[in-house]
Amino acid sequence: MTRYLICILLLSGSVQIHAQNRDAPYMQVLGIAQDGGYPHMGCTKKCCEMAWEDRSMRRYVVCLALVDPKSGKWWLFEATPDIKEQLHYFQALTKGHYNFLPDGIFVTHAHIGHYAGLMELGREVMGTRDVPVYALPRMKTFLETNGPWSQLVSLHNIALQPLQADSTIQLTENISVKTLVVPHRDEYSETAGYEIITSNKKYVFIPDINKWEKWDRSIVEEVKKVDIAMVDATFYDSNELPGRNMATVPHPTVTETMGLFEHTDKQTKAKIHFIHFNHTNPLLWDDEKQKEVKAQGFNISVQGEEL
Length: 307
What we know:
- Helices cover 25% and strands 21% of the residues.
- The chain is an alpha/beta fold.
- The strands form 2 sheets. A 7-stranded mixed β-sheet has the order 7-8-9-10-11-12-13. Strands 1-2-3-4-5-6 form a 6-stranded mixed β-sheet.
- Strand 8 and strand 9 (191-198) form a beta hairpin.
- Helix 1 (2-12) crosses helix 3.
């Protein structure tokens, strides 16, 4: 069993950063890549070539675990196409201390990297029973009325838990979650962000948004209110997809976000942890770019780290 856990950690190419106070809730990063993961299907360019050759460079689709050691419970944020590996990965990182299945799953929206993993809970794979899945109204309706997701509901593999914009739910005495709504390409559902409030830290998680200026809030002010902000870093800059109209896949680039925080203090900048990297984003694989971003006071999410 020990050998198996070590293999999981090596294949993920990640490390567990600084052990936390084991009584305090914490977040654990189980994936950092955009919906297609890294390397990306069909990509043989420089950005992915090295990751196809070196398995230690591979990264799962963006996903977080919220862990409460005091209650022995944990929750998953995003049900990704990599959920099979990520659930085993979490077991490896926590040495099997928690139940294999989370006590609930929070999904942000109906793009494949954020909810497609729910299929693994169905009769063809795990055949789970009433796993709580938290979703905003349009996302909830989407799952209820479209197959194969509706079968998960009718067979009670999942139990949908309705969320409302700007509402807060209490998970334990130590943890609550506030749901935010952010502008994104909402073809099938609205898009959620989450503010996670624990007994010792406050987090905000916004892996997808069109542009910060499209939101009815100031991202600078939102970051100031929390301890850690895991935010959309799909693309490094606007030149990343040559020959493609970037307006069809709007996201705030890393350079744009850093510009917004240029005149804030170093404590505010240090709260930002970039996440949700497209395979073309050099922050996944370019040491020099990583150093440049860190030199400006920002953080880059690391798969396996505790926050």
